[in-house]
Amino acid sequence: MARVRIPDDPVLRNWDDVNIVLKEIGECQIQIEEIEADMNTKISDVKLEAEMDAKPLQDNIKKLEAQIKEFVEANKHELQGKTKTLNFGKTGFRKSTKIMLRKVQNVIKNLEAFGMLDCITITKKVNKEVLKKYSDEDIAKIGAQKKVEDIFWYEVDREKLQC
Known about the structure:
Elements: H1 15-74, E1 83-86, E2 89-92, H2 104-113, H3 128-131, H4 136-141, H5 158-161
Antiparallel strand pairs: 1-2
């Protein structure tokens, strides 16, 4: 296969060329949105159909789970330990411990007062938006640096394309 040389000359030569390319980008974006909207509609239809197909099975599972729970609770004395292993699965009980907090701020104050600091989680992170407001010298002395750059952007005027 022969090598193809890509020209170094810019493709766009004036603002009218840029304007035409912006129009083409906008038209492509509109077509992509139409494709994605069609895709999302199809996905929603398939999800709805799957939910409707699965609903009777989910209802049956809930009913069967309630029956198992009722039986196991009534026959808890027959369990050796906390689990009963059967041919098609296991059932039983497990200990679940929850801590209920009413007034979190009071609990935190009491934890601090009683020296239970290992029960308190403190998350620290840098607020970069506030840090941007400091001088370059202040930012440098804390071990960070400010990077300022011009970032290219463009915006398609969609209203003019749809006329």
